[in-house]
Amino acid sequence: MTTKLLIDWTRCEGRGLCIELLPEVLVPDDWGYPMAAHHDRSLDVPAGARRYAEEAVKECPRLALRLADS
Amino acid sequence: MTDVISPAHGLMAARASSLAEHLAAVGPLPRPTADELVQLVADAGLTGRGGAGFPSSRKLTAVGGQRSPVVIANGAEGEPASSKDRALLTLAPHLVLDGLVLAGRGVGSRAAYLYAPEALLSKAIRPALAQRRDKLPITLVASPDTFVAGQETAVVAAVQGLRAVPTNTPPPTYVRGVKGRATLVHNVETLAQLALIARYGAAWFRARGTEDDPGTRLLTISGSVRRPNVYEVAGGTTLGEAISSAGGASEPLQAVLVGGYHGGWVPWTSDGVRSPLTRAGLSEYEAHPGAGVLIALPTRRCGLEATAEIAAYLAGQNAGQCGPCRNGLPTLASHLRDLARGKDAAYAHDEILRLVGVVDGRGACHHPTGTARMVRTALRTFRSEVDHHLHRQCTGLRGAREWHR
Lengths: 70, 405
Fold this sequence. Notes:
The complex is a heterodimer of chains A (about 70) and B (about 400). By secondary structure, chain A is α+β, with helices and mostly antiparallel strands.
């Protein structure tokens, strides 16, 4: 099972909390918006970071994040 | 308008302005059951003609059987270089309305919409509707003249009376659309094809085109061709054949933008002209047929300047909703302008390469992704021009700025 981070770009304002919580998944782009840290551009959440991803979803001030399991 | 396909085949053969003319030309609208309709469309292999090329039967299946589904005919055509939907709505309004009624009946809908520019609604659609006695109520919604207004989620927003800008996905509109209901959004050309397939069958449709691109499709061909216009061609038609259908090149060409502003530049080489205008045939160039837009670029024009102009337009057409697109596209466009003008070209070139990766895939709709693709194909197709610009030279003799009109 893979857990993927989904970003609602119409909500995101680049506050950056998710980037702090998930440095192995996200880096800031030129304007502070979250961008995939991996070269393959994937937003897959490693198993060890699952609870930080859940925290990011809960704490995002813009409610712009979701997790999708596949 | 010139017919490439002989009359009695295809959309343009079925043009008729009055209902009487329409019925005389193509006969009454049959009443297939929901299952029969899905089967017909699947057998015909009809794909969406609005740009994404999604198999139509899959959308019909997904929406059919849902509670109070909604159907929408999308004629917004935000592409400045596209006029095939306008041509179709003007020349064959009843065919589009037939398709909408068929799709509505097929999925069990009681709410149908036709979404198109107000000028077309008043000129072609209201007069056509006034002649008809469809049980399915059809509401007309005016589309704004913006690039993203035709994206499916923007269409759903507009129908609900909201600003016609894309919203976040997933889920797709065929799962959750107008007022949360499953919503079938089909391009008007797709619906017109549906109206013919329902009458003449899947085998009739497949008698034109190829195995992987059956039927006919409308192309809007502009730029440096002798007869710029809307043409109907068989599926699988090559780029060279399509340009020939528009009277051929009016001067030496270097490339054709295939698939519109979100498409890709295909070089006018012996390989390029032989490419079928299909997803598979164009994949080598990272292009796709899109909504059937072809813009022929002459050798006297600088490809980088042409690309910079389009990128500037696309940057201006971002909906202002998503950070990476709102910030990234204007920055990308400004570096393209610098590269085109030879201003700090090496830095501009590096930044363009980086920024196409930054914006790609990061938005609620395809706008940043489509823009990034078009720019990437420009850097490949105009590679030698890039080299010239890096050495403060330009091979293009500056042509008319409005070359793509």
